[in-house]
Design goal:
Mean pLDDT: 92
Order of helices and strands: HHEHEHEHEEHEHEHEHEEHHHHHH
Largest sheet: 5 strands, mixed
Shape: globular
Structural class: alpha/beta
Number of strands: 10
Low-confidence stretches: 1-23
Radius of gyration: 19 Å
Strand order of the largest sheet: 2-1-3-10-4
Length: 320
């Protein structure tokens, strides 16, 4: 996904398999379209970042528009490839994945952006008294991050990380809990909550503070589908928007539903995660343009940043 952690890999894989078993039934896209079925591939486990999707399914927002939602995917799912190949109509990806896929010639487009502010961050111990990302890197210590991803490259380019000992991110808060000089990548709905509930006092600096702020939990489809099935795509987006409105207003019932599907998280963690992400999903822009709305300016900025990082071979056309 875009970053949340879980230490129990076997359980994560089991959930992914369960989702896959219940989805699509081997039907092709044309057959599903004729019956009103629509498949969406997730890139992680049922957690608050997908709350609006499960809310829309639970409350009938898709059904009222003649759509039957089927969920598939899970941790490690090749979502972009699944959408490109027509295995599913929609998927969840990061905005930088969309730009990189298009640079490789993949006909993928974004139709809905869940997070207006990217939920990735760097977590430190509050006792260190750090006040910014720049402070984190100037202070030194150990930094656990996933190497090679776009935001890691951006940080390396825009900050002096010479004082940091860089280690691979290990999908656990255990090293952080035992090392007062440790910093690590996080997803705001996951690791900081886990660390706090285990007695730590974490402080999180969002990656967006650096100026790198790609949309996250972006819903993608193919450009051909967006152009050729405009009503179906519009209905799907409208259902998502309705679902997210309901989840932001009251996530209780849908959290309970997701909790039955993902028993690694308890009810309190779901509650705290939903609260932590709310201001990253809804802001003044979405109040004017609707939840999930996007701007050409943001996509243009992201494409320019990825180009500066040397991650693109060509010159993307953000309007596409």
């Amino acid at each position: 996904m875009n970053g949340p952690a879980g230490s129990k890999r076997a359980a994560a894989i089991a959930i992914a398999v369960l989702l896959a078993i219940t989805a699509c039934g081997g039907e092709d896209a044309a057959t599903r379209a004729a019956s009103g079925k629509v498949a969406l591939a997730l890139n992680w486990k049922p957690e608050p970042e997908f709350g609006g999707i499960y809310e829309a399914q639970r409350t009938g927002a898709f059904a009222r528009r003649g759509l039957t939602l089927e969920l598939t995917g899970g941790p490690g799912a090749p979502v972009v490839q699944m959408v490109e190949a027509g295995k599913v109509e929609f998927g969840i990806a990061a905005a930088d994945e969309v730009v990189l896929a298009r640079d490789r010639g993949t006909d993928i487009v974004a139709v809905f952006a869940t997070y207006q502010t990217n939920p990735q961050g760097i977590m430190v111990h509050a006792a260190r008294g750090l006040r910014s990302l720049a402070d984190v890197f100037a202070a030194g210590g150990t930094l656990a991050v996933e190497p090679g991803v776009a935001y890691t490259k951006f940080l390396e380019k825009h900050y002096d990380l010479a004082k940091m000992k860089i280690v691979p991110y290990g999908y656990s808060v255990a090293p952080f809990l035992s090392d007062p000089a440790m910093a690590q990548q996080v997803f705001v709905t996951a690791e900081p909550i886990a660390a706090r509930r285990q007695g730590a006092d974490p402080q999180v600096f969002l990656i967006a503070e650096s100026g790198f702020n790609p949309y996250a939990a972006v819903v993608i489809t193919t450009g051909a589908r967006a152009r050729g099935e405009t009503k179906r795509v519009a209905d799907f987006v409208a259902a998502l928007r309705e679902g997210w409105r309901g989840y932001l207003d009251d996530p209780t019932e849908t959290n309970a539903l997701m909790g039955r599907l993902n028993q690694e998280m308890d009810a309190e963690t779901f509650r705290l995660g939903a609260a932590a992400q709310a201001p990253l999903i809804e802001n003044e822009f979405t109040k004017q343009h609707g939840i999930g709305a996007m701007s050409l300016e943001r996509w243009t900025q992201l494409a320019a940043q990825l180009g500066t990082l040397g991650l693109l071979d060509g010159t993307p056309k953000p309007a596409e």
